[in-house]
Amino acid sequence: MAALCRIEWHGIWFVTGTFDYDLVVIGGGSGGLACSKEAAQLGQKVAVLDYVEPSVKGTKWGIGGTCVNVGCIPKKLMHQAALLGTALKDAQKYEQWRPAVQNHVRSLNWGHRVQLQDKEVKYLNVKGSLLDEHTVKGLTRTGKETMLTAKNIVIATGGRPKYPTHIPGAVEHGITSDDIFWLKESPDVALECAGFLTGIGLETTVMVRSIPLRGFDQQMAGLVTDYMEAYGTKFSWRSVPKSVDKLSSGVLQVTWTDEQTGKDQRDTFDSVLWAVGRAPETKTLGLEKVGVKLNKESGKILVAADESTSVPNIYAFGDIGEGRPELTPTAIKAGKLLARRLAGRTNELMNYDNVATTVFTPLEYGCVGLSEEEAESRHGKDSIEVYHAFYKPLEFTVAERDASQCYIKVVCKRGGDQRILGLHFTGPNAGEVTQGFAMGFQCGATLTHLKETVGIHPTCAEELTKVNVSKRSGLDATVTGC
Amino acid sequence: QQLLCGENEVYDYDLIVIGGGSGGLACSKVRASQITLSKPTLPPDLHLSSLGGTCVNVGCIPKKLMHQTALLGTSIQDARKFGWELPEETVKHNWETMKSAVNNYIGSLNWGYRVALRDKNVNYINSYAEFIESHKIKATNKRGKETFHTAAKFILATGERPRYLSIPGDKEYCITSDDLFSLPHCPGKTLVIGASYVALECGGFLAGLGLDVTVMVRSILLRGFDQEMANRAGKHMEEHGVKFLRKYVPVKVEELEAGTPGRLKVTAKSTEGDETIEGEYNTVLIAVGRDACTGKIGLDQAGVKVNPKNGKIPVNDEEQTNVPHIYAIGDILEGKWELTPVAIQAGKLLARRLYAGASLKCDYVNVPTTVFTPLEYGACGLSEEKAMELYGQDNLEVYHSLFWPLEFTVPNRDNNKCYSKIICNKLDNDRVIGFHYLGPNAGEVTQGYGVAMKCGLTKEQLDNTIGIHPTCAEVRLITDQLQSWCSLANAKRPARCWAVSTTPTCGRRALILPSWSLFLTV
């Protein structure tokens, strides 16, 4: 019966040459929503399909994607709760702020729904999959089917946390970031998200197989974890989990191998949170059938510079695109540009270079451009100059807080005006500090520009305009005085 | 006339720097073999050696620490909404604890500077300097002992001190920012006279500590700053309990009762009529401006020209006065920014030009700055008024937005109060010539934009920069939204897009959902 329907639908658009929609977007997250709203504003007839497959633990949420529901937004709010705790040094009640955070998230879900309606974007809470290059099938939770035809199809389904399925007990007893923001009871102890969990007073251990923050500048990653350790989070380095068992008391027993000694260790926790990477949602999309090519290893969709896939009118972007940064603002921008290109309003391609980002650990880390390692590997150690400084935020002085890991590093091309290749900052409000410098980066800022810019006093950001000690000189890089 | 050779044989020093503040110290440290003279500050008993000038002792540093104290008070309120369980009684603030902690930190900075100067072989003399000839000064210390020194070159970096009102009772009963940061007792109910950033910042943090604060303003707020931003910052203060008495000038201050603090009666007259009002306060803080310390240092003996109206010293673009071997930097300069980092930058570069063969001059254009009012205001470049004056309204495009920082959402405060705008010059590739931001961490946000503007940031480059999420700094992403709004409105694109966007985008939708403005950034 289904096959018959397919052929019939195939026939209809093939014969009439008209489609139900100009654009169907599969995925209602940061990227998908930006793209569909932009397209609608440009006069296209658009439908967006969004469907949340419940997590293993059964957690589900509304429209808005990872960022709004189980990512950036709740993460930053909980990080803020923890920071306020540092300001107070008091005990906390998880039950109190969780509802506040969730209320805010729900208001964002609602807001997205209303915005779509305002812009006349058709929203369908169905799980989309491709039948052919112009037809999308939508499946509701109860199994009811809908068909839509579209001139162009955009896939923006993002990723979901990976479970290490090869570890016994991992799936049954562990949770992921999908669940942590929605739990009814306080997860008394959890791996990852350790920063804010420690901040609200929970005993937290982070188990790391090899290196922290893979892909980031490793010196900076080290400062971040040093601070967390000083702050109270425990780290179990070079540890590979082997199994998770639930004991009769309800507590979870985790067995792991210490790679340094080769011996097995064991300890008990109330919660185990897996944060070992995210995998794209491509399996149930019907991609192979239609001929959309994937990267075999990562499962991500292979895309060209204009977000097109191997099938002419099918596009993909956001976390699901191979080689793309997994960031909300990047997805939003790419989505908008794609919508404009599809409506014939521009030829502009998305620029994925020089994207600034911030890790919201207890000591925040903001960066733009290359890590020191990447700069060395691309240009050679002798062709780069690294300027750095250890500084102390004014707010830490009277509060007598340890600022040993507050650090700035500017990686430059050696010679001439010394073009900035990478800029790194650990300290409070790293996101706010880094944003403007990212703009400077976009304009091709050099060290000369940096030094010619007068600092704003007293701030942490001004230290970036004052860097002058190079690593090569071997001199003490501690900032003294005001 | 200097001898062509044997310069060092003629004079005691290569360089004498008069003033040990931000500017003076910066240029001293670049070059060894010189002396720095610092005027003893008043009152002398509070700081053993108050090296560091205004910024360290009675300016930026204690100001920001007390501002931070007030912000922490707000955080405590926020914390409850995030689930922190605090005792039900209002958390109170202890002035003495804060003052001691701040002063201890300042003391450590003073000490640090002494050590730094010593390390660099700079001779530091804690005496009052006065020119008696163009190459010779007389230095008088606290005890009246006089010494004489000559130098090939001089740098004046004497800074400023707060101005008084010249009304009965001002010097006897009122305090200034020089006194506030080390006041031994809590100021209590305070009247701040003035509308400078000093007045608003001090009024702001005093209110944040829970004190009853009134600000008396003669005409406008933050003269010289973008008036739309100034008024928004002021409005926020008003909404948070600071009382404003607009269009009044004080005429006399009387003491009702001595004490720590005592009780003072202030009489003020309206600037628009004959109305007079009276008020009673524990403390009256005068913050109506600062005067350059150039009156009593014998500049006439050295032949240095001074603007008689304000005591400031005109210099060329190399900070040189009309007397070739005498230079000046910092707050005393005519027509330049009164900011610590500017003084430091000017001082360093000057010293390098004089002694290290450098040629780089201090760039006074696009200097970023921040006013640390309760809702902070960061700016770089031109105000909207100045931009219109220079380029004409039709040649400008102003992009703006109201926004709600994520951290304010859960505690549900200050919705749609934060605001940012950029002013672009259409004639010059849409170059960003003004950046204004009213919101938390304004200093941190604005600094990087300062670098970008130095690189000649255009609207296009700004649009091409991806935002960091979630932050306040990414708010300029709103400009995309505004662009599309303009086309949607189907109207001829107005020169100032903001008229279109404000009401429908922020106003209407804010009615439906308080969190709507967050959307505008996503």
Automatic annotation (TrEMBL), chain A:
Its EC number is 1.8.1.9. Pfam families: Pyr_redox_2 (PF07992), Pyr_redox_dim (PF02852). The keyword Flavoprotein applies. Residues 21-335 form the FAD/NAD(P)-binding domain. Its cofactor is FAD. Residues 355-466 form the Pyridine nucleotide-disulphide oxidoreductase dimerisation domain. One of its GO terms (molecular function) is glutathione-disulfide reductase (NADPH) activity. Gene3D superfamilies: 3.30.390.30, FAD/NAD(P)-binding domain. InterPro entries: FAD/NAD-bd_sf, FAD/NAD-binding_dom, FAD/NAD-linked_Rdtase_dimer_sf, GSHR/TRXR-like, Pyr_nucl-diS_OxRdtase_dimer, Pyr_OxRdtase_I_AS, Thioredoxin/glutathione_Rdtase. Keywords: Disulfide bond, FAD, Flavoprotein, NADP, Oxidoreductase, Redox-active center, Selenocysteine. GO terms for cellular component: cytosol; mitochondrion. GO terms for biological process: cell redox homeostasis; cellular response to oxidative stress; glutathione metabolic process. NCBIfam families: TGR. Belongs to the class-I pyridine nucleotide-disulfide oxidoreductase family. This is thioredoxin-disulfide reductase (NADPH). It comes from Oncorhynchus tshawytscha (Chinook salmon). The gene is TXNRD2.
From TrEMBL, chain B:
GO terms for biological process: cell redox homeostasis; cellular response to oxidative stress; glutathione metabolic process. Keywords: Disulfide bond, FAD, Flavoprotein, NAD, NADP, Nucleotide-binding, Oxidoreductase, Redox-active center, Selenocysteine. Pfam families: Pyr_redox_2, Pyr_redox_dim. FAD binds at residues 64, 331. One of its GO terms (molecular function) is flavin adenine dinucleotide binding. Its cofactor is FAD. Binds 1 FAD per subunit. It comes from the Eukaryota. Its EC number is 1.8.1.9. The active site is at 469 (proton acceptor). GO terms for cellular component: cytosol; mitochondrion. Disulfide bonds join 55-60. Residues 13-347 form the FAD/NAD(P)-binding domain. NAD(+) binds at residues 194-201, 289. Residues 367-475 form the Pyridine nucleotide-disulphide oxidoreductase dimerisation domain. Belongs to the class-I pyridine nucleotide-disulfide oxidoreductase family. PANTHER family: GLUTATHIONE REDUCTASE, THIOREDOXIN-DISULFIDE REDUCTASE. This is thioredoxin-disulfide reductase (NADPH). It comes from Oncorhynchus tshawytscha (Chinook salmon).
